[in-house]
């Protein structure tokens, strides 16, 4: 934190409309996150957590087809 690069304030922090600052993260699937899911993607495998947002315990990763079924079922 210095004069050239001040710390970001609450007014300059970008968040999604639903209050999820992780939506801009490349390892979160936006389409699934909009359904209220965790949507964290395990980058090496491409599998996605389909548990609810802020779930207890570790993520449970599912294949791309299962994730697409959740999005398509809306």
Could you walk me through the main structural features you see in this protein, from its secondary elements to its overall organization?
With 74 residues, the protein is an alpha+beta fold. The chain has a three-stranded antiparallel beta sheet with strand order 1-2-3. The protein starts with 29 loop residues before the first helix and ends with a helix. The chain contains two helices and three strands, in the order αβββα. It is globular, with a radius of gyration of 15 Å.
Helical stretch count? 2
The percent range for helix content is 10-25%
Uncertain regions: pLDDT < 50 for 5+ in a row? 9-16
Report the count of strand segments. Answer: 3
Rounded to the nearest angstrom, the radius of gyration is 15 Å
**Major beta sheet, strand line-up:** 1-2-3
Structural class: alpha+beta
Main beta sheet strand tally, sense and closure: 3 strands, antiparallel
The share of residues in extended strands comes to: 5-15%
What is the 3D shape? globular
Give the N-terminus to C-terminus distance in angstroms: 45 Å
String of helices and strands: HEEEH
User: What's the average pLDDT?
Assistant: 80
Secondary-structure map with pairings?
Blueprint: H1 30-33, E1 41-42, E2 47-49, E3 61-62, H2 64-72
